[in-house]
């Protein structure tokens, strides 16, 4: 055998598996056809957050009347900074791979038989294979990508010059984040969403979605919900027909960014022959230890289905690495997710509405950001936290919109994963003044009554 483990795909899922199984003493190779770091580090989470954070700094300065200065983004410089960050993170990961003697094999990995991976005509043998090949944008019949004026999010984020009028198809996570970014760059933004609400994503509370819509509209973003659209022309302008509940409109812009539709990347992998089962959409089925239907083959990250998030991909990689290395570990019950809009969002677990539908009794405690002193000192009093509490006091879910939501939600995920009840959290003190005090205030209200 050449290796104990061959990981096909060097995105966050593949990297986590490779590093963890190597830490546990396995001889590991990782195969990457493009850039180590995959989508998240090179094209998605890291670059988009670097750009959005720059936009937020400018927003913050501009709305702070007591700061005697103005600020504006230098797009070219911001892109240089973004590339520096990507390279810095990648260099760190490459060093860790080196430290654990993980071989990096450049090229497309093909799998035809169990225990073998072919790269550029050479066959490598291995005890275990990990499929970590990710997902990619899907060109849909109504929104055919052309790489010119109908593009995926990454292409849009990397255009040297963004045009003035941008139409974003899809008001999900990527759509909201891109709208935030492009609006901060003074572009005219229209979002078209098929569903009756923005952020039609499981676990995201309708009130949060409405708050985000309100904030984007205040900033000048035009939002169509409940609207079925289709691209009809792409010559000079991109022209859509959009059917709203009350009329049919023509909407046109210079650039359409399509944020909907992704598919698993499995070309070159003969899933049938290696006896790896998939669901109806082609995503590989795995259990909570990242094992596929073939005991010698694992799958992690986007290729293993929803949620399509780096948060999940990384953890699933660790879990796969643990199990390959002989340590039994399972996926956490709760995977939090974060949205980096102008107002941050953090969600974990279920919403009250979802629990009601499942006939589970629960109650909701809401704390507004303006009740938290720290929110005033950072000049961000918009937003709120909703914590959903079961009959026995266990936390079943939380949704937060507002400054710091993406950090606060991790603490709630910790409490949920450890099955802590509000009665347990009541014993805990957080430091003052911090945004996290919003959790303690929710607990206080759940047990006794308001302090703030
Ligand atoms: C705009 C945007 C923003 C996002 N922001 C966030 C965020 O803030 N937080 C978050 O959690 N998630 C975010 N995501 C989602 C996140 O990027 C993905 O879920 C994550 O990158 C999936 O990781 P992965 O390792 O499964 O796949 P990928 O990152 O796609 O990596 C797969 C790798 O496999 C390689 N590959 C594929 N096939 C082969 C082959 N046959 N041989 C060799 N190599 C191969 C590819 O080149 C790629 O490098 C965002 C996505 C988008 C589009």
TrEMBL record:
<dbReference type="InterPro" id="IPR004099">
    <property type="entry name" value="Pyr_nucl-diS_OxRdtase_dimer"/>
</dbReference>
<dbReference type="InterPro" id="IPR001100">
    <property type="entry name" value="Pyr_nuc-diS_OxRdtase"/>
</dbReference>
<keyword id="KW-0560">Oxidoreductase</keyword>
<dbReference type="InterPro" id="IPR006258">
    <property type="entry name" value="Lipoamide_DH"/>
</dbReference>
<dbReference type="Pfam" id="PF02852">
    <property type="entry name" value="Pyr_redox_dim"/>
</dbReference>
<dbReference type="Pfam" id="PF07992">
    <property type="entry name" value="Pyr_redox_2"/>
</dbReference>
<protein>
    <recommendedName>
        <fullName>Dihydrolipoyl dehydrogenase</fullName>
        <ecNumber>1.8.1.4</ecNumber>
    </recommendedName>
</protein>
<comment type="similarity">
    <text>Belongs to the class-I pyridine nucleotide-disulfide oxidoreductase family.</text>
</comment>
<keyword id="KW-0676">Redox-active center</keyword>
<keyword id="KW-0285">Flavoprotein</keyword>
<keyword id="KW-0274">FAD</keyword>
<keyword id="KW-0520">NAD</keyword>
<feature type="domain" description="FAD/NAD(P)-binding">
    <location>
        <begin position="3"/>
        <end position="317"/>
    </location>
</feature>
<dbReference type="GO" id="GO:0005737">
    <property type="term" value="C:cytoplasm"/>
</dbReference>
<dbReference type="InterPro" id="IPR016156">
    <property type="entry name" value="FAD/NAD-linked_Rdtase_dimer_sf"/>
</dbReference>
<dbReference type="GO" id="GO:0006103">
    <property type="term" value="P:2-oxoglutarate metabolic process"/>
</dbReference>
<dbReference type="InterPro" id="IPR036188">
    <property type="entry name" value="FAD/NAD-bd_sf"/>
</dbReference>
<feature type="domain" description="Pyridine nucleotide-disulphide oxidoreductase dimerisation">
    <location>
        <begin position="335"/>
        <end position="442"/>
    </location>
</feature>
<dbReference type="InterPro" id="IPR023753">
    <property type="entry name" value="FAD/NAD-binding_dom"/>
</dbReference>
<dbReference type="GO" id="GO:0004148">
    <property type="term" value="F:dihydrolipoyl dehydrogenase (NADH) activity"/>
</dbReference>
<dbReference type="InterPro" id="IPR050151">
    <property type="entry name" value="Class-I_Pyr_Nuc-Dis_Oxidored"/>
</dbReference>
<dbReference type="GO" id="GO:0050660">
    <property type="term" value="F:flavin adenine dinucleotide binding"/>
</dbReference>
């Amino acid at each position: 055998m050449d290796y104990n483990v061959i990981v096909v795909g060097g995105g966050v899922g593949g990297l986590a598996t490779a590093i963890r199984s190597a830490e546990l003493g396995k001889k590991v190779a990782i195969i990457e056809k493009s850039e180590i770091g995959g989508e998240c580090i090179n094209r998605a989470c890291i670059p988009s957050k670097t750009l959005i954070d720059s936009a937020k700094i400018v927003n913050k300065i501009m709305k702070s009347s007591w700061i005697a200065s103005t600020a504006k983004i230098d797009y070219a410089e911001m892109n240089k900074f973004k590339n520096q960050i990507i390279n810095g993170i990648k260099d760190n990961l490459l060093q860790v791979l080196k430290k654990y003697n993980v071989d990096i094999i450049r090229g497309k990995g093909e799998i035809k038989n169990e225990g073998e991976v072919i790269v550029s005509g050479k066959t490598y043998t291995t005890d275990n294979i990990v499929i970590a090949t990710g997902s990619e944008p899907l060109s849909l019949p109504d929104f055919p990508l052309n790489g010119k004026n109908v593009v995926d999010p990454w292409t849009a984020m990397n255009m040297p010059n963004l045009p003035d009028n941008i139409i974003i198809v899809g008001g999900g996570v990527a759509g909201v984040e891109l709208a935030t970014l492009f609006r901060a760059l003074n572009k005219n933004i229209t979002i078209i969403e098929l569903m009756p609400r923005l952020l039609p994503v499981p676990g995201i509370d309708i009130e949060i979605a409405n708050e985000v819509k309100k904030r984007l509209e205040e900033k000048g973003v035009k939002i169509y919900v409940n609207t079925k659209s289709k691209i009809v022309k792409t010559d000079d302008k991109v022209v859509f027909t959009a059917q709203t509940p009350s009329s049919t409109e023509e909407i046109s812009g210079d650039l359409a960014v399509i944020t909907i539709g992704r598919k698993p990347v499995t070309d070159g992998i003969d899933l049938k022959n290696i006896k790896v089962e998939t669901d109806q959409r082609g995503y590989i089925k795995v259990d909570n230890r990242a094992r596929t239907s073939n005991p010698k083959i694992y799958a992690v990250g986007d290729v293993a289905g929803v949620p399509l998030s780096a948060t999940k991909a990384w953890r699933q990689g660790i879990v796969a690495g643990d199990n390959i290395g002989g340590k039994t570990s399972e996926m956490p019950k709760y995977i939090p997710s974060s949205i980096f809009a102008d107002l941050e969002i953090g969600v974990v677990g279920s919403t009250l509405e979802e629990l009601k539908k499942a006939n589970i009794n629960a109650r909701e405690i809401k704390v507004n950001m303006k009740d938290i002193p720290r929110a005033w000192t950072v000049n961000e009093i918009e937003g709120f936290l909703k914590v959903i509490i079961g009959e026995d006091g266990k936390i079943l879910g939380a949704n937060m919109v507002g400054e710091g939501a993406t950090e606060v939600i991790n603490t709630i995920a910790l409490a949920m994963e450890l099955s802590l009840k509000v009665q347990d959290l009541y014993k805990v003190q957080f430091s003052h003044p911090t945004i996290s005090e919003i959790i303690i205030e929710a607990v206080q209200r759940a047990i006794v009554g308001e302090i703030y």
